[in-house]
Amino acid sequence: MGSKKQPKQLIIDVLKEKACLKQSVFRKTIDVFADFKKEAEKLVEELKDEMCKVDDQVILDYTEKGDFEFHIKFGGDILVFYMHTNVFDFPKSHHIWTSSYLKDDELRAYCGMINVYNFLADSFKYNRSNDIGYLVARCFVNNEKHFFVEGKRQLGFLYNDFIHEVIEPKKIRAILESTILYSMDFDLLTPPYDTMKEVSVMDIIEVTNAMKIKTGKRLGFKFQADSDDFE
Predict the structure, then answer these.
(1) Would you kindly state where each structural domain of the chain is located, as residue ranges?
(2) Tens-digit pLDDT profile for residues 38-91
(3) Are the beta carbons of 221 and 189 closer than 8 angstroms?
(4) What residues does 132 pair with on adjacent strands?
């Protein structure tokens, strides 16, 4: 009979396998996020050059907010790209576990995550800290730089081949363009009268000082052709 491993050795074995892997996934995701930044900045500059010929009053801007965040502003919208600093596994009910890619090696399921949120540009312009942003997409990248995207509409099925797809600048550009197009598809419509007929003194004071009545691209508002939500 073989001798059982001591608890300390078991801890070392797990650290070797999972902790080292997670550190590697984190570093790979940092590299991918740097590519997202480069492609976003290039895309914004290209869009600026084209829009200047049409209307130079339309705002297009790229802003880096640190190692783990950047913003793309286009017209009345801002997309916030945020890289989570943790590495994630997936519940066994998730569809990726049906693939042979993970059945061959379960450690391939460990992924870094990049979230994309859509806000109204005025929420930042007027410092409306109560305003709501909404998750448009999230991109998962594993240690082999295979990736897939969970998201709204086309974002949920265009980038869903985790077995074969490897992230690279051309695909990052396509993801960026898809998130912008999705966000531009929905216009803010006036809320029903009855939902806005009462307002407190404090709300008026706040809107006078900093325009802080809570607003979001979906909160209290209806959108054209936007009926599907994240599960």
Answers:
(1) 7-187
(2) 999 999 999 998 877 777 777 899 999 999 999 999 988 999 999 999 999 999
(3) yes
(4) 216
